[in-house]
Amino acid sequence: MADEEKPGFVDKIRKQSEDFPGWYNDVVRKAQLADYSPVKGCMVIRPYGYALWENVRNALDDLIKKTGHENWYFPALIPLSFLQKEAEHVEGFAHEFQTVTHGGGKELDEPLVLRPTSETMLASVLRDYIQSYRDLPMLTNQWNNVFRWELRTRLFLRTREFLWQEGHTFHETAAEAEREVETMLDCYREIAEDWCAMPVLMGRKSESEKFAGAQYSTSIEAMMKDGKALQSGTSHYFGDNFSRAYDLTFTGRTNTQEHPYSTSWGMSTRMVGAIVMAHGDEAGLQLPPQVAPVQVIVIPIFRSDTERAQIESALAPVLDALDGEDIRVKVDWRDLRPGFKFNEWELKGVPIRLEVGPRDLAKREVTLVQRLDRAKQAVAIGDLPVVLPAMLGRIQGAMLAAAKDFRDAHTVRVDSLAALVRFFAESVGFVITPWCERPEDEAIVKRETTATTRLIPRGSRVPDSPCAICGRPATAEVVWAKAY
RNA sequence: CGGGGCGUAGCUCAGCCAGGUUAGAGUGCUCGGUUCGGGACCGAGAGGUCGGAAGUUCAAAUCUUCUCGCCCCGACCA
After folding, report:
1. Could you give the CA distance from residue A400 to residue A118 in angstroms, rounded to a whole number?
2. Taking 50 as the threshold, does the pLDDT of residue A3 lie above it?
3. Which nucleotide is nearest to A21 (CA to C1')?
4. Residue at minimal CA–C1' distance from B40?
5. pTM: predicted TM-score of the whole model, two decimal places
6. Is residue A61's pLDDT more than 50?
7. N or C: which end of chain A has fewer CB within 10 A?
8. How far is the CA of A348 from the C1' of B33 (A)?
9. What does the alpha-carbon distance between residue A238 and residue A106 come to, in Å, rounded to a whole number?
10. Hey, which residues does A78 pair with through a beta bridge?
């Protein structure tokens, strides 16, 4: 019998193995990450979920600044005409617009669109800020909310309003802009792997999957525990598409009018959903220590005020020391039975539980339990400032390794359409094939399997074998998956 | 927007097919007591426009029509 099935353990959520979407909803809501709101398609991000997002956000914000970018802020409302200048961009986004048509009780002369993304606003404003090659590169970022009229919404994964950062940069040369695209994709990989313990594939999107208005898009793709892919960050190369459409020019080194090359890149609150689906199990959420709002939950076990006082005084110096180690510790003093608290904090995914009661105190010890496998171990109180950071580090590493093993175990290479169809008929995961990059092939595969191309891995070589779908000469290796 | 499912207490649901006292259970919540190392137990209590509207009927949670919302699958998408 698995631990999860024993009486007494978390059983208030649907089973991940039987109903993955139901499990996901239960975990998000019962771990108090988010809830549905009175507004269709929009969610309330609750304190625990927001704290998780803040940890991801802060790590990414540091990286963004370290790589030379500055934060700023633009309006949430964009004049409709701004959005209509770049043909491909409008075509891609127009059906997702949510529009403000009235103000002060009167109809506006021009409708204002709630930003689905801010390329058009940036390009319009930057005409004033970019005059000379000396003003470049302009490396910017903004943290904001964006609005897209999604037909089918899911908490964190797809909502009509979501939080993200959108980076926008402008460069003198195409080569420099393309390096920027790579740099930021690397930042996203770092956030995903080193912070969220989520291994990702990196690479270029196919023509049909790219961002509307981009010359090409790149992304990181992670595998969720149901074998589906989740695009977890994107970095786009625009060439001079936007600067031409918005008549953005600068005076070059040879006194000629030139169009800057631009990029944009984004990572959103979707990452919270990714963490849930990449690490969660039958007992609920499982959080990587690096981003866990609470890394160590202390469950004091006592029956009398005297016992409580003894625990308090034993814990005080330890809590001070852990604070010095920057470990996020919380003591759950609530008047509830320990077993109840064990379950609740497991559901909420806290990496380490520290139990301390009379039996432990008698030996000057505490009991540590890892969320990962419920492994228990007694540790001398004085050793905690050394043991806990090391244990958190090991858990972080183990979670990344487990996620990578899972992905590898669900990744296959095939060389025919028949094999691809068979795989998705009876299995889940990533399939790598040679491909000729014709969109017709993507349409065929989508019709037969509902899977789509996720990306052409960075650094992958042109295969010798022909396209798995149509037999024409292959120009790339591509990863197929069912995607969120 | 197509297909399927569901709206009854904060949450999970029973009751509906075969209309009929004052609409129920578990859980959660409040109070009291006993408890406390894996979701305790006993007792008392609060909590409901049965999603909404119209219709049929002596009588509607239950039947009919319309409508709104939510979930799942698909199309669209971070």
Report:
1. 34
2. no
3. B72
4. A337
5. 0.96
6. yes
7. N
8. 32
9. 38
10. A113
Nucleotides in chain B with any atom closer than 7 Å to protein CB: 1-2, 35-40, 69-78
Does a cis peptide bond (omega within 30 degrees of 0) precede residue A317? no
Helices (H), A20-96: 20-30, 47-66, 80-83, 87-93
Query: Residue A376, CA: closest nucleotide via C1'?
Result: B37
Query: Tokens 């269709």 sit at which residue?
Result: A40
Q: Which nucleotide is nearest to A482 (CA to C1')?
A: B74
- Which residues are CB-neighbours of A419 under 8 A, at least 6 positions away? A468
- Beta partners for residue A479, in sequence order: A432, A455
CA-to-C1' span, A26 to B45 (A): 30
Q: Compute the C-alpha angle A105/A41/A24, nearest 5°.
A: 160
The residue with tokens 């809501």 is A29
Per-residue pLDDT at A229 exceeds 70: yes
DSSP assigned state of A69: -
CA atoms of A173 and A180, how far apart (whole Å): 11
According to DSSP, residue A154 is labeled: B
Tell me, in Å, how far CA of A283 is from C1' of B39? Answer: 12
Token duo for residue A338? 């320990």
Instruction: Give every CB contact of residue A437 below 8 A, 6+ residues apart in sequence.
Output: A206, A207, A475, A476, A478
Q: How many Å from the CA of A239 to C1' of B42?
A: 74
Is the CB of residue A31 less than 8 Å from the CB of residue A296?
no
Give strand letter and number of the nucleotide nearest A344 (CA to C1'): B39
Separation in Å: B52 C1' and A41 CA: 21
pLDDT (tens digit per residue) in A75-113:
999 999 998 888 888 888 888 888 888 888 899 999 999
Q: Are A238 and A79 in contact (CB under 8 A)?
A: no
CA A156 → C1' B65, Å? 37
Indicate the pairing of strand A296-300 with strand A329-331. parallel
Determine the distance from the C-alpha atom of residue A85 to the mean position of all C-alpha atoms in its chain, rounded to a whole number: 30
> In terms of Cα–Cα distance, which of A169, A175, A179 is closest to A137?
A169
**All residues at 6 or more sequence positions from A43 whose CB lies less than 8 Å from its CB, including other chains:** A34, A35, A36, A37, A155, A156, A159
Distance (Å, rounded) from C-alpha A63 to C-alpha A194? 12
**Pairing relationship of beta strands A352-356 and A296-300 according to DSSP bridges:** parallel
- Report helix angle A384-409 to A270-279, nearest 10: 90
